[in-house]
Structures are given as C-alpha cells and as structure tokens.
Design goal:
The complex is a heteropentamer of chains A (about 230), B (about 325), C (about 250), D (about 375) and E (about 270).
Chain B: H1 3-18, H2 21-44, H3 52-69, H4 73-95, H5 100-120, H6 122-125, E1 131-132, H7 147-170, H8 172-182, H9 184-190, H10 194-220, E2 222-223, H11 230-243, H12 250-268, H13 272-286, H14 290-311
Antiparallel strand pairs in B: 1-2
Chain C: E1 2-13, E2 16-27, E3 31-35, H1 42-49, E4 57-62, E5 65-66, H2 72-78, E6 80-82, H3 95-105, H4 122-135, H5 150-163, E7 168-172, H6 180-196, E8 198-202, H7 206-212, E9 215-220, E10 223-228, H8 230-235, H9 237-249
Parallel strand pairs in C: 3-8, 3-9, 6-7, 7-8
Antiparallel strand pairs in C: 1-2, 1-4, 4-5, 9-10
Helix pairs in contact in C: 3-4, 3-5, 4-5
Chain D: E1 7-13, H1 23-36, E2 40-41, E3 44-52, H2 57-71, E4 75-77, H3 82-95, E5 98-101, E6 117-119, H4 124-138, E7 144-150, H5 153-169, E8 172-179, H6 187-195, E9 200-204, H7 207-219, E10 228-233, H8 236-239, H9 244-247, E11 250-254, H10 263-276, H11 282-301, H12 306-313, E12 317-320, E13 323-327, E14 334-335, E15 338-343, E16 356-362
Parallel strand pairs in D: 1-3, 1-4, 4-5, 5-6, 7-8, 7-9, 9-10, 10-11
Antiparallel strand pairs in D: 2-3, 11-15, 12-13, 13-14, 15-16
The chains are: A alpha/beta (about 230), B mainly alpha (about 325), C alpha/beta (about 250), D alpha/beta (about 375), E mainly alpha (about 270).
The complex binds adenosine-5'-triphosphate (2 copies) and magnesium ion (2 copies).
One adenosine-5'-triphosphate (ATP) binds near residues 16, 18, 36 and 38 of chain C.
C-alpha cells in the first residue's frame, strides 16, 4: 500500500465531516472514490494533502505517518492534487503556473508534460484567467504532473470538460497508470470512474459504505441507487 | 429593568465618586463615540479607521457656533449630530462600496485629509492651537460650568444614547446590519440594498460621533486638533476592541478601561505609549474578543471548576 | 402568458460565454426544470435572473416588466426568490433570524425600521416560523445557523427562499448533499410547493427532475439545446449524448 | 493637615508626542530652580509634580485640570508648544491658577492675555529687531532677503516685524514663502528660494521644521555660500541636530544661549554641565528661568496665594538668567534681552557642543502701537 | 521615488499578506536609525547602507514569525490593533535607544554638493537616491514579475492553499514577503536619512502617504504602487510651488478625487 488511511476523523471547525474513514491505495493502482455531493470526498483528499488534517486517525504514505505535516511537506513527498476548483492562478501565465510547480528531480519535466497536452503549448503565455475551462483543467493536471508525484489525487477531473477532453483525460490516466503512478480518483461521472478504476470505494457522510471492484459495484443496485443516485 | 441596565446605572452614579468629574465625563463621552463606532464595527462588520472625522467636524462646527453666536446647548448638540451625520454620509458614500483592507485605508486616508484641512485652516480651526474659548451655556438656570452638573448632563445623554442604540440594534435595522456583516451577497439577494444600509449605519455612527464631539468640545472648552486626528480614530477602535466589539456594552467597558488606563499610566511613566503598545499586542495575542469575552471565559472557567463538585455525590 | 421570460440572454466572462442566447419561457404555476452538464451555465442563468450581475446582452421580462438591469435587491422585492447551490446563509444568526431577515425584506412595510423592536412584527415572525415549519426546522429556530448539519443548512437555504413569499422560486440543486430520506422529503416538499408557486428547478438528480417537472429545458455550453416534457427530454438523442449519456437509460 | 501648607507646582511638559524630545530636559530645568531653594518657598515645602502634555491640547487641558483639582496645583509652568500653551492658559484662567509660559506665541501676552498667564520668551518684535539690526551691522550689503515662514500665527507676526524693521535698513524682500507646520519636504521651497537669488535666507520656523529646512538648504548648496538666519531658534536643541558642515554660516536668534554673560547663567550652566554632562539648551534654561521668576514673584508678594503672586510678578524687576528682566504689568510680557549668535566653523569649535558665539543682544520692547493686549483684565 | 519605494513595500505586505501594516512607518524610521548606528559602528556609509535594511528585514522576520503568523486567520481589526501596537513599541523603542532628539546624517563625501543642471541646481545625493530608488523599484518589480519567486508570491496573493499544494512552504513565503516589505521600508528610511535627517516621528510622517500610495495604486498591485508614488510626488511638488498651504492636504485630495472616478484605484483589479 502506497497510501493507507486508517480511521480518520476530520473536522471543519465544529463540523465533524469524516467519521473514521478507512481506505487504501496500492502501488500503481487506480482507486475511485464515489459518493454524493457533500459526502466527504473532497474532505478526504484535503485530509491526505494536509490542507485539513484529520484530528484523529492515521494516514500512512509509503509507510510513514503524514498526519500533521504541512501541505508543502506532504506535496514534496510525492503527493499531488488536482483540485475540483482547478486552482489555476489567474494572474500568472500558463507557463508561470507550470514553472512555480517545477521541481528539479521530477520525472516529468515541463517539456515532457507538454508533449502529453499539445493544446497547452499554444496558450503558454496566456494568463490563467483567460484560459477556457478545458484548458484550465489540462493545466491543473499538467501542473500536478510536473511536481513528479508518485500518488496523484484527482478531484472530479472530468468536471466541466467537453466529451473529447474527457477522452483525453481518460487517456492520460491510462498512460499514467502504465507508468505505475498510483491514483485516487474522485468522480461524479461514475461511468468514467468505473471504467478506469481497479477498485472502488463509495463514501457517504464521511464514512466508507462500499468497497470492491467496479464489477461488484455495478452489480450492487442497492448501493448505486442509495448512494450514487444513479442506476435506476 | 434588566441587570445590565442596573449595572450601567450604578456605574453612572459611582464613577464621579471614584475618579474626577472631568475624567468620568470623558469616559461617557468616549462611550457614546464607541457606541457609534460599534454599530459599524461590531454589527455591520465595517472597520472604520476614520471616526474622528465626524467627531472633529461636529466639534469644530458646533464649537464655532457656540463661540460666535451664543446658541443654546440643545441647538449645539443638534447641530453637532447633524454635522456628524452629514460628514459621515459624505465619507460613507466614498467608502461603503469597498470592503476589507480597502475600506480601512480609505476611511483612514480621508480622515487624514480632513485632519490636514483643519490643520491648515487656521483662521477657523486655530490649526495646531486648537479652537479654544468654547463655553457651556447655561440651560434652564442650570449652570453647566459646574463640573458635576455637566457630568450629570453628559451621563444622561449617554444613557439616552445607549437606550437609542439598544433600540436600533434590536430593531429590524440591527438585524439587517448583522445579516450584511455575515453574508452581504445573500443579504442583497434577499432584497436589501447593501450599500444603502451600510451608508445608513455609517450615518447613524456619524451622528453618535458628532454628539460625542460636541460634548467633548464643551467639556474642555476647546476643540484640539487631535480631535480630528487618526490617533483619535484609532483610540476609539482600540477602546471598542479592548472592550469587545461583539457586544452592545463592549465599547462602554472599553472606553472606561482605555481612558482610565492611559491616564493612570501616563502619570507613572513618561514612555507610557510603549506600555500601551505592549497592552495592544497582549490583547491581540492572548485576549481576542476583549474584556467582555475574557469575562465570559473567566465565568465559564469558574463554572467548570465548580460543576464537578456539584455533581459529585 | 409566461410569468418569466428571457430573450436571447447572454453572459460572457471575458472569453467564456457562460450563457449564450438563452430564450426561455416559464409559465405561471408550473415547475420548470433546467438540466445540463456542470459548467453549462445554469447557475449563471439564475444569477442573471436574480440580478447578481447584469447580462452582456438580451432581456429578462418578469410579469410583463423588463427587469434586465434591475439590481438584485429590487428584483427580490418583485417576488423572485432563490436558493443557492452552495449553502449561503447567515452563519452567526439564529435560524429564525435567518428566515426573519428574508421575510422582513418582503414585508408589507418597513415602518419602524430603525426603531420598532423586531419581535413586534408579528406577521413577519409568523411567516418566518411557517417557512421553518414547511422545511421541518421549526424546533431548531433558536440555534445559530453555523451549528446545524449540512443537510439542515440546505433546508434552511430553502426556508429563506420560501419566507420571502415569492411569486417565482428559483431552486439551485436543493437536494444536493441530502441523504436519501432527506431527498425524499425534499421531493415531497417540492411537490407540495408546486401548487403554490411558480418554480424553476436546477437538479442533477434525474429521478427528481423526471418525477416533478412540468417542463424541462436542457442547457449545454451556455445554450439551450432542448426543451420539452420529461418524457420527451428523456427520449431526445441530443440530450442523451450531451448530458444523460449512458447512465440513465437502462 | 501638613499637606495644606504645601505649595504645589505643576510642570506640564511634553514627554510624548511631537516634542517628546524636550519634555525631560524641561523637567530638569524646573527641578534645578526649585532645588536651589531647597524645595521651599517662604518657609513652605514645594511639591513639584509633572504631567505629560503630549503636545495635544486636549490631553493637556485634561491633565492640568486634573492636577489642579486632584493635586491642588496652583502654579503651572509650561508647556512647550504655543498651541497647547494657549489651551493651558485657558485652563489657568478658568481655574484661577498662575501660568508661566515661554514660547513663540504673541497671544499669551497679546490678544488672549489675562491676569493669570505670563510670557517669558521675548516678544517677536524684540527678536526681529535684534536679528535684523545685528545682522545688517555685520553684513551691510546683504539687502536681498528671502523669507521662509512657518504658516501660523507665530510665523506671521515675526515676519511682519522683520519686514517692519527691514524697512529702516532698506531691505528688499525678494520672496516670502510660507510652509505648513510639520513640513518635511523642503526641496521645492529651497529651489524656489535659490531661484530668487537672495543675499540671505531668513527662516522663521521652529524645531524640526527649522532643522529639516536648514539641512535641505545645505543639501542644495545654498549654505554656506549664503548666510542663513534662524530667526527664532531654540539654539542648542536645534543646532545639535545639525552637523558642523551644515551649521557653517548659520546665524541664530534665540531666547537663550549657554554662553550668556550673566552671573545667574554662569552658575546655572556650570551646575547643569556638572549634573548632565552637557550645556543646557533653551528648553531647560527657559524652565529654569521661568521657575526663578515665579519664585521671585513669591518673594515680592510675601504670600503663597495665587493672586498675590500674580500681583508680585506684575512690574517686578530683577537681574536674572538672561540679564535685566522686567515683567510688564499691562501685558504680562517679560521684557528681557534676546540673543543673536553666529555659528562657528568646525575648526573653531573647542568641543562638540561649542556651536556659536553670541554677537549681540537686544531688548527693544514691543512698541505700544503694536500691543494686542489692550486690557489684561481682573482676577 | 521614495514614496514609490514606501508604497511598494507596504503594497507587498497589505496585498500579499492581506494585513493592514500600521507599523510600516515605524520600520521606515528604524531603517534610518539603523543606518545611523551602522555608520558609527563600521565607519563606512556604503557598508552601513547595505547592513541597515538587512537589519530591518531581520526585524521584520521576527515580527512576522512571532506576531503576525497567528493573525492571518484573525480579523483585520486585530491585525490592525497588533501592528498599531507594534508601531507604538517601535516608535517609543527608538526614543529609548537613541534618545528623543533627532540627528543629522551627512551624505558620503563624494555625494555632497550638487550638480548644476542648467535650469536647476540639484544635490548629488538626491540624484543618487532617485537612481537608487528607481533601481530598487525596478529590481523588486523584475524580481516579482520575472522570477519564479515573484510568480510564487503573486500566486500566494490569489490562493494560499494551492501554492502549498505545489510543495511550497506558504508560511515561509509569507515570512519572506513580510521581510522583503520590511526591507523596502528600511532601505527607504536609510536612504532618506541624509535628506531629512532622523527623528523619532519620521515614521508617522511617512505612514499616511504610504497608505495613500497603496490605496491609489490598487491593493497588492505593485506596478500601481510605483505609479501612484510618482504621481503623488509630482502632485505635491507642483502644488507646493503654487499653493504651499495645501501641499500636504493635496495628497489626500488627489486620492479622494481619483477614487471617486476609479473606485478600485488607479490600477486596481478588485
Ligand atoms: N470549509 C468548510 N467549512 C465547513 N464545512 C465544510 C467546508 N467545506 C466543506 N464542508 C462540509 O463538509 C462536508 C463534506 O464536504 P466535501 O467537500 O468533502 O464533500 P464532497 O464529497 O467532496 O462533495 P462534492 O461532490 O460536492 O464535491 C459537506 O457537508 C460540506 O458542507
Ligand atoms: N463570475 C464568473 N467569472 C468567470 N467565470 C464564471 C463566473 N461564474 C461562472 N463562470 C463560469 O461560467 C461557466 C458556467 O458556470 P455555471 O455556474 O453557470 O454552471 P452550471 O451550469 O451552474 O454548472 P453546475 O452544474 O456545475 O452548477 C463555468 O465554466 C464557470 O467557470
Ligand atoms: Mg468535492
Ligand atoms: Mg450550478
């Protein structure tokens, strides 16, 4: 297990969001995390990345407990997040957006990433706020990649993307998987998630309510109906 | 009558016995000033760093009239309130569109502008010399030159102001202002013209500042230049914060602590602003929420210490 | 005649045209749903309707009256109330005050605005309590809004919109973040409200949309691509391709 | 009670705020004068208290009132700045306590004179007369004057008198610029002054304004080529803030300079030097001098009652700190010599505090037609 | 140019850190006094000019670490209370350490005297300060606009969380920003000392102007702060020639006028 979360409880101020959540991601594995709005998916990712550290529980990354480390320390250990809000810096050019994320030892240098998203090369000198939604999403993924992560956390990467771009993202995730990057994928688009994932978790009210393979989940009408609002 | 009101009344009665009349009077004047600010700071969430603009403007105008045209006390107060409100409307018009840091800096800079106008317009304001020679005209055979009589007058006006402010914060307006502080986008969407309401709060706050300004001018017989300076603006903010901006009564406690503290420390050590600075830093780092909250925390701490004993069999 | 109507309504954020030439008619007394992928411009359309920001071009007509550039607070007075997609309440105020604020805004008169004690407005307080009762929050009236659960905040969100006694109710994903049984309650409530108000509903949950809507409009990249009864929409191939995809059908 | 016999004297000095630099040394001067008498007057103990004027009229008013009401202070000396002094003077009038002040406002012994306030500093007329007469004697050909005037009452009245006196010397005033109090950016004024090609620049300003302006005039290369006159300077306190290079060719008019050749001054300077390791400037000397005058007033009145002391001071004539001193009963102006000095070049300085030589003193009183104090009034 | 320098430092702190820094003027004064002491300690103006602002930056470092860091989440009111208290402490501290009476500091000998520019005689040192301030402003601007660090700081203005997600220590970044702002205040103070001399009140005199510069330039807009600094300097110089009484008030009048026309400041975007 590259990532091993055991019984974490995460709060926003007084709001208790994650209730003893437990999940794991194996080396080179793509794991999907599904659940309704507000179920705690994003909070799970924020817990892992140290933005909203859990109050109790354990998060082991490569065997080391990372709870309480600063977000920047965790990031440097090789965890990258593509946030649901994209987080593109609007007053920086796309090139600057990439350059501040750059790291010397990374296995993907800027050039290599641009190979993967040729569209980005055309807009390198445009300010972030001028990019289209799809371009922003690509930039967010590219920016996460240049940090050279071993574990990539994707929060709704297909959000707001045209079908063609979704295809591109799906393609990229497949290629990354071949390079044995581990991934935790949060998706509203359950169909896409189920295609990509090796294993699936369903979260509700801050706790895992289902764990299994995509095939199992598809078979479990009860779960898909109750917790995903789909499959009826 | 509630316990808080009884406490305030008791304070009004006891204070002139404990400290000199002039200081006691000044404390209530400052409290009126603080009440006005707190409508902005505590209720509307607007940190105005330029309240002395209205305080000073009212003091100058009413002072000038008191000096040159023998108006009576109530007319002077009415004029001061009006000047405070109008100047607040002017400044507010420029400021309420902005928020956060911008708002603070704008109120501050406009305050500076009024300060320099007063500083330079020596023929009227006396510039750095201040505007001296302001009398306290007698009213209905009561000679306000008697410090105690003036104290009673100011204390009565303070109680009146407090009552009015209490009515205001308990009125729909008070709720709307709090709603604006909490979430101005939603307040707008629900149907309130947010800038207009902010301006209204500004004007009411200005009117209170104006009242305080006139009373201040009459207390010392002079409108000093610093009455319109940013240090004064700062002092009222700090007094309010030290008292606790979350409560209607915070500014009252704050002005008491602030004036009493700075007066007594200034006699002890000539470098007293250093101590004041240290006090600010300590409040910020350890007692955010001010006296009111510190008091509440103290009580809950005591309750907690007592509770187990009570439950124990 | 349509109670609410837009004519080639367009909103551009710089290069991005979030709402693109939308012409839409909402008939009085109906429940009209708007669906479409994320980022299609649905919320932006609501923001335009309620005057959060002005449109780049086009017109909005409410009850025969052009409200295109009317500011948000004025539109609210005309009787257009909305709930927000992201919970958007007054956290430090009590639940009752949250609703009271909305009720007062649409009160008959603002006499005594700065003077009368707010609990003396009996009619307003009653309307506020009724709205809380509608959504099932009556017994929590005195708690501060920041201390209730996410689901309850969603209900409060709806109560704030209801308390304004609106003529048109714009609901932006009222069921998001609700647990299944709360979703059921929400559906029941929306059904009940349907008779009383004209409702425009944004929702991603197809079962709700299909169950309660009189008409459905589909937005995609800022434009309307289809409109019809729920059944028609479900059959529309373009809609299936753009939005419903493979997930709903079988 | 024993306390009732105490005579309480208040020094209201600026310990904080704009003139916080001089507060402590003013305090020294007053204390020295009282200690000379063993803290006693007419057999009664003197209780000396101080309050911080903060150079704020409001704060001073408040604190003086407090000291009068709370501590029973009956004799007030200070503060430093004119504006605040006028406020304190108002309190003195209202509270009927004696007030002695030294500084650049004509009003205390002029338009706003009353029975309780006295002015120790020379009249602006005396100053202007001394400055212009003496300077013209030394530089008869320097006829083109440029004035730089602080824009408030004090500056205006000195300007008026300098122009008045200047007429008798046939001076041409090629420019007279007014700057706001507290101005810190003088480059524009200096450029303008240079453009007028004057023979001499005369400044009528005080404290940091004067220091900043003198520095800028040097930076722009006007001094030492041209002479610069600081018409109404505090002397040591201002000069010490300048360097010898800047001071070269500066001429200074002042109410006191520590080389003053009087027995009292010599004694005072000696004990001050011994105590504090440097010569006294204008501030401690003024405080010292005022306190001494006040005590002379007690002696003459043979009473510690305020009104008696006032009467005792009125018309008193003594040889004191700066020479022959007389208090004009009609205006409460102390009639006394004013000093005019010339700064020494670095090479001539015997020690770092050896700034200047006194080249003349003058004591022409304000001519009656200018006197603004028409009626000093009653108690 | 000095105004621009002051404004730049303050803009950095208010804009990047979202903190109303009322201690900025005090840091300016401390810079001047550090220069004065450093000259006496090392006997060399140039070395002192390097050391003094670095000292102020170090002071800024300590202040940020010990005082400001816990306050990012608190309201502006408490931040203001803190920085105001700090400015009182620093201002009084100057009096305690260096005494209440001001000093003069001559420029180094090669910069004394002036140049005759034909139409005007101008002190060499002022020219030097203009060039230095220009270079510093340019350097700061280039640093913030053209280097990775600058990009990081500008990114930090917009979204702290995202920056830390990229493996960058936001806290350290903010400490650095505060120190850099303090450095700019310090060097402005040090450069000013030979022109205006030193006095404990010099910081307060400058603070109001610095705030106007920042408000005019647009919060956190560095280029705006530079332009506003220049505009105000020129406006003040021109007005001083024709209507001296108004030369201070005009700064604020100009500001009020511009804000009436452009409420977001000259170059403000928010
Ligand atoms: N900053 C915050 N402060 C307080 N509560 C929050 C905050 N952010 C999120 N929450 C609450 O935490 C809960 C979980 O939120 P989270 O964002 O993790 O959900 P999610 O599963 O990612 O939902 P979505 O699918 O909508 O992204 C929600 O109830 C939400 O309201
Ligand atoms: N204020 C704004 N400035 C710039 N772009 C905006 C703004 N508001 C929305 N957008 C963009 O406009 C597009 C439409 O947004 P909108 O919120 O209307 O989508 P939506 O249809 O409501 O989506 P969802 O189903 O996710 O709520 C999005 O790409 C969004 O990023
Ligand atoms: Mg999420
Ligand atoms: Mg939406």
């Amino acid at each position: 297990m590259i990532l091993d979360i055991r019984g974490i409880n995460t709060y926003y101020g007084l709001g208790h969001i994650l209730h003893g959540l437990t999940l794991g991601v194996a080396e080179g594995e793509v794991v999907a995390l599904l659940g309704r709005n507000g179920a705690g998916k994003t909070t799970t990712l924020r817990s892992i990345t140290g933005l909203t550290p859990p109050r109790t529980g354990e998060i082991r990354y490569k065997g080391r407990d990372i709870v309480g480390l600063g977000a920047h320390r965790i990031s440097r250990m090789g965890i990258a997040l593509v946030p649901e809000t994209r987080g593109v810096f609007s007053y920086l050019t796309a090139r600057e957006n990439l350059s501040i994320a750059r790291r010397p030892g990374s296995r993907w240098q800027v050039e290599a990433v641009l190979e993967r998203f040729p569209k980005l090369r055309e807009v390198l000198d445009r300010k972030g706020r001028l990019l289209s939604g799809g371009e922003q999403q690509m930039l967010a993924i590219a920016r996460a990649l240049v940090t050279g992560p071993d574990l990539l956390l994707l929060d709704e990467p297909s959000q707001g993307l045209a079908p063609l771009v979704v295809e591109a993202v799906v393609g990229t995730i497949r290629e990354l998987k071949k390079e044995r990057v581990s991934m935790l994928l949060v998706e509203q688009n359950a169909e896409m998630a189920l295609q990509l994932a090796d294993r699936v978790y369903v979260i509700d009210h801050g706790a895992i309510v289902f764990e299994g393979t995509p095939a199992h989940l598809r078979a479990d009408r009860q779960i898909t109906m109750t917790y995903l609002g789909v499959g009826g | 009558m509630s316990r808080t009101w009884l406490a305030v009344l008791a304070a009004v009665v006891v204070l002139p016995m404990a400290v000199r009349h002039a200081i006691a009077t000044e404390i209530w004047i400052f409290a009126i000033f603080g009440l006005g600010l707190n409508l902005l700071l505590g209720y509307t969430g607007l940190l105005s760093f330029g309240q002395s603009t209205f305080f000073g403007a009212a003091a100058y105008v009413a002072g000038y009239l008191l000096k040159h045209s023998a108006i009576n006390v109530f007319l002077a107060l009415a004029i001061g309130i009006a000047v405070g409100a109008v100047s607040a409307a002017l400044v507010g018009y420029l400021c309420v569109q902005r928020s956060g840091l911008y708002f603070i800096m704008l109120t501050f800079a406009l305050n500076q502008m009024f300060y320099f106008i007063a500083y330079q317009w020596t023929t009227v304001t006396g510039g750095e010399d201040g505007m001296p020679g302001i009398g306290r005209p007698a009213l209905l055979a009561v000679d306000f030159r008697n410090p105690l009589a003036y104290y009673v007058f100011v204390a009565a006006l303070f109680l009146l102001s407090l009552w009015i402010m209490k009515r205001i914060v308990e009125s729909p307006l008070g709720k709307i202002l709090q709603a604006i502080r909490e979430n101005d986008v939603r307040a707008e969407a629900v149907g309130y013209d947010v800038p207009r309401f902010k301006l209204l709060a500004f004007v009411i706050g200005g009117a209170f500042s104006g009242l305080a300004g006139v009373l201040y001018a009459m207390l010392f017989g002079i409108v000093p230049l610093e009455a319109i300076g940013f240090v004064f603006s700062g002092n009222v903010v700090f007094a309010t914060l030290i008292g606790g901006s979350g409560s209607l009564y915070g500014p009252i406690i704050g002005s008491f602590v602030f004036i009493w503290l700075s007066e007594s420390v200034s006699v002890v050590w000539e470098r007293w602003p250093l101590l004041l600075g240290v006090a600010f830093v300590i409040v910020v780092l350890f007692f955010r929420g001010g006296c009111v909250e510190a008091w509440a925390r103290f009580w809950s701490w005591r309750e907690r210490r007592r509770a187990p004993a009570g439950i124990a069999p | 005649m349509a109670l609410l109507r837009t004519e080639t309504l367009t909103k551009a954020f710089g290069a991005l045209t979030a709402v693109n030439g939308v012409t839409l008619e909402v008939q009085a007394g109906t429940l009209h749903s708007i669906i479409g992928p994320n980022g299609a411009g649905k919320t932006t359309l609501f923001n335009l309707l309620t005057g959060q920001f002005p449109p780049t071009s086009g017109r909005i007509v409410f009850d025969g009256r052009d409200i295109t550039r009317t500011p948000a607070h004025r539109i609210a007075h005309l009787g257009l109330a909305r709930s927000f997609q992201r919970t958007n309440v007054f956290p430090a105020l009590s639940i009752l005050d949250n609703v009271w604020i909305a009720a007062f805004a649409r009160g008959r008169s603002w006499r005594g605005l700065v003077w009368r004690r707010s609990d003396r407005y009996t009619e307003i307080v009653e309307r506020a309590r009724a709205a809380l009762a509608d959504v099932g929050l009556a017994d929590k009236a005195d708690q501060p809004a920041r201390e209730i659960s996410h689901g309850e905040q969603r209900q409060l969100e709806l109560a704030i919109a209801l308390a304004a006694a609106p003529r048109v109710l714009l609901l932006d994903e009222p069921a998001a973040g609700l647990s299944p049984d709360e979703t059921q309650k929400m559906v029941a409530l929306v059904r009940e409200l349907k008779g009383r108000y004209t409702i425009v509903l944004i929702e991603h949950k197809m079962d709700i949309i299909m169950g309660v809507s009189d008409r459905v409009s589909v937005m995609h990249f800022g434009s309307l691509i289809a409109e019809g009864t729920p059944a028609e929409i479900q059959r529309n191939p373009e809609v299936r391709r753009a939005y419903l995809g493979g997930m709903v059908a079988e | 009670r024993a306390q009732a016999k105490e005579v309480v004297m208040l020094g209201i000095w600026p310990f904080t705020g704009a003139f916080s630099d001089v507060g402590p040394i003013l305090d020294r001067g007053m204390k020295m004068a009282l200690e000379e008498r063993g803290m006693k007057i007419l057999g009664r103990p003197i209780k000396y208290i101080t309050r911080d004027s903060a150079t704020q009229a409001g704060a001073s008013t408040r604190r003086v009132e407090e000291a009068v009401d709370g501590e029973g202070a009956k004799f007030v000396i200070g503060p430093w700045s004119s504006g605040v002094a006028l406020a304190v003077s108002e309190v003195a009038k209202r509270k009927k306590v004696l007030h002695y002040f030294s500084g650049g406002t004509e009003d205390i012994s002029g338009a706003r004179c009353h029975r309780y306030s006295f002015q120790w500093a020379a009249s602006p007329y005396t100053a202007a007369k001394t400055v212009v007469d003496t300077f013209m004697k030394a530089n008869p050909r320097a006829k083109r004057w440029h004035l730089l005037v602080a824009d408030y009452a004090f500056g205006w009245s000195v300007e008026k008198y300098i122009k008045e006196v200047g007429k008798t010397h046939g001076l041409e005033f090629v420019g007279a610029d007014r700057h706001p109090l507290g101005e810190r950016e003088f480059s524009n004024y200096v450029t303008k002054a240079a453009g007028n090609k004057p023979d001499v620049v005369a400044m009528i300003n005080f404290g940091l304004d004067a220091v900043t302006a003198a520095r800028e005039i040097f930076n722009f290369g006007l001094t030492p080529k041209l002479p610069l006159i600081m018409s109404w300077s505090s002397g040591v306190e201002e000069l010490v803030q300048l360097t010898p290079e800047i001071r070269e060719n500066i001429w200074v008019g002042s109410n006191f300079y520590y080389t003053a050749d009087t027995p009292v001054a010599k004694e005072f300077v000696k004990s001050y030097q011994a105590k504090f390791g440097g010569p006294p400037g204008y501030a401690p000397s003024a405080a010292y001098g005022m306190t001494r005058m006040l005590l002379h007033g007690f002696d003459r009145a043979k009473s510690v009652e305020v009104q008696d002391v006032v009467k005792g001071l009125e018309g008193i004539e003594v040889n004191d700190l700066v020479g022959r001193m007389r208090v004009d009963a009609k205006t409460h102006q102390t009639l006394r010599p004013f000093f005019f000095m010339r700064c020494k070049p670095k090479s001539a300085m015997k020690n770092p505090m050896d700034f200047a030589d006194i080249i003349a003193t003058g004591d022409t009183p304000l001519p009656a037609q200018y006197a603004a104090c028409k009626d000093i009034g009653s108690f | 140019m000095l105004y621009a320098l002051m404004g730049l430092g303050l803009s950095l702190i208010t804009g990047v850190l979202n903190i109303p820094n009322f201690a900025h003027g005090a840091l300016f004064a401390v810079g001047a006094y550090f220069l004065f002491s450093a000259i006496h300690a090392v006997g060399n103006f140039w070395l002192a000019l390097v050391l003094a602002p670095v000292g102020v930056a170090l002071l800024g470092l300590v202040i940020e670490y010990a005082g400001i860091r816990p306050l990012y989440a608190a309201g502006h009111d408490y931040q203001l209370l803190f920085t105001f208290g700090l400015s009182l402490i620093l201002g009084e501290g100057i009096i305690v350490v260096w005494g209440p009476i001001g000093f003069s500091q001559l420029p180094p000998s090669i910069l004394r005297g002036g140049l005759d520019l034909g139409f005007i005689f101008y002190p060499k040192y002022r020219l030097f300060v203009m060039v230095m301030a220009g270079l510093l402003v340019l350097a700061t601007w280039l640093f913030l606009e053209k280097t990775r660090y600058g990009a990081i700081m500008r990114a930090g203005i917009e979204n702290k969380e995202m920056v830390s997600l990229l493996g960058i220590d936001v806290h350290r970044l903010f400490t650095a920003a505060f120190a850099l702002g303090a450095y700019l205040a310090g060097i402005a103070g040090a450069l000013t000392a030979p022109i205006r001399g030193l006095s404990p009140s010099m910081g307060v005199d400058m603070l109001g102007i610095a705030f106007v510069v920042v408000a005019l330039g647009g919060l956190g807009n560095l280029l705006g702060a530079i332009a506003a600094g220049l505009i105000i300097g020129v406006a003040q110089a021109v007005v001083a020639l024709y209507w001296t009484e108004a030369s201070v008030a005009v700064i604020f009048a100009v500001m009020a006028a511009i804000l009436l026309v452009r409420p977001q400041g000259l170059f403000g975007i928010r």
